[in-house]
Amino acid sequence: MTDEHKSKEQLLSELKDLRRKIKQRQNSNSPVIDRDRTSGNNEYLNRIVVENSPFGISIRNSKGKMLGANESWKKYGASRKIQ
Asked: What pLDDT does 24 receive?
């Protein structure tokens, strides 16, 4: 991450933006996901959320055929028939 090629105005603009983001996060009570870091990584993020959810989640196609499920669903939801 080199900034030598950036102008003073560009650096000040980035600094102002970063300070604004920090202030927003400090004032927020909700967990924050850095969109800059995850924008190209949605598949990974979704997989992590599903895998680590304490709630049963099954993934189905438009016809209702199950494509996959997390461990919580396999443990608790599989015993109930979903129509």
From this structure: 83
